[in-house]
Amino acid sequence: EAQVTQNPRYLITVTGKKLTVTCSQNMNHEYMSWYRQDPGLGLRQIYYSMNVEVTDKGDVPEGYKVSRKEKRNFPLILESPSPNQTSLYFCASSRRDRVLGGYTFGSGTRLTVV
Amino acid sequence: AQSVSQHNHHVILSEAASLELGCNYSYGGTVNLFWYVQYPGQHLQLLLKYFSGDPLVKGIKGFEAEFIKSKFSFNLRKPSVQWSDTAEYFCAALNNAGNMLTFGGGTRLMVKP
């Protein structure tokens, strides 16, 4: 089944403890992206990647890192999480022909930083 | 920079009522517009999309949207809602480069049985 898989689904952590949220897609998509969803703000893009070893900042990149060493994986790294990073995170991927292909979203990771 | 705004944060309707959710965008280039739906506890799913051509776009589950260029709008409609349409709906615009999908703030729809 074609899908975007995120892990974990739920995570509670303490301020300052490094964490990684994984994202993997099995559709051979070139494009991958991370979003955070907050009430009333919709989804805001954190980082995106056009292909392997190519990443760029979205609207809200502060406090996050990403890497794209393989086409299928695009992990989101929080080096020193803070409470304002408590949010619902979505990974998305798309074919190079992004307009027609649309984005496929993962099931989300709900992160709480205490 | 492009932006997308959705006028209604919360909408409550009874079953069989008609639905229209507003969406306005601001972007100077070619517009690619989407509506996504997020059912409780689930990820976003694509309802419909507009790139060019017929401004009236039909999507899944009986939804449609009309692109009105002069009004910078892309409103979502459904003639008769069902309880199962209870969800949050997001309008989004994709930039020309295709690397940034900008979302509106979302509209929570509750349909009372």
Report Rg of chain B.
Answer: 13 Å
Query: Biggest interface pair, residues each?
Result: A-B, 26 and 24 residues
Helix fraction of chain A? Answer: under 10%
Instruction: Classify the beta-strand content of chain B into a percent band.
Output: over 45%
Poorly predicted sequence stretches spanning 5 or more consecutive residues of chain B: none
Describe the protein in words.
The complex is a heterodimer of chains A (114) and B (113). Chain A is mainly beta. Chain A is built from one helix and eleven strands, in the order E-E-E-E-E-E-E-E-E-H-E-E. Chain B is built from no helices and twelve strands. Chain B has strands at 3-5, 10-14, 19-21, 24-26, 32-38, 44-50, 56-58, 64-68, 73-78, 87-94, 101-103, 107-112. Helices cover 0% and strands 52% of the residues of chain B. In chain B, the strands form three sheets. In chain B, strands 2, 5, 6, 10, 11 and 12 form a six-stranded mixed β-sheet that branches. Chain B has a four-stranded antiparallel β-sheet with strand order 3-9-8-7, with no helix packed on it. Chain B has a two-stranded antiparallel ribbon with strand order 1-4. Chain B is globular. With 113 residues, chain B is mostly beta strands. The mean pLDDT of chain B is 91. The A-B interface holds A 31, 33, 35, 40-45, 48, 50, 56, 58-59, 90, 92, 94, 98-100, 102-103, 105-108 and B 4, 6, 9, 32, 34, 42-46, 49, 51, 90, 92, 94, 98-106.
Short précis:
The complex is a heterodimer of chains A (about 110) and B (about 110). Chain A is mainly beta. Helices cover about 5% and strands about 50% of the residues of chain A.
Spell out the blueprint of helices and strands.
The complex is a heterodimer of chains A (114) and B (113).
Chain A: E1 4-7, E2 10-13, E3 19-25, E4 31-38, E5 42-51, E6 54-57, E7 65-66, E8 76-78, E9 87-94, H1 98-101, E10 104-105, E11 109-113
Parallel strand pairs in A: 2-11
Antiparallel strand pairs in A: 1-3, 3-8, 4-5, 4-9, 5-6, 7-8, 9-10, 9-11
Chain B: E1 3-5, E2 10-14, E3 19-21, E4 24-26, E5 32-38, E6 44-50, E7 56-58, E8 64-68, E9 73-78, E10 87-94, E11 101-103, E12 107-112
Parallel strand pairs in B: 2-12
Antiparallel strand pairs in B: 1-4, 3-9, 5-6, 5-10, 7-8, 8-9, 10-11, 10-12
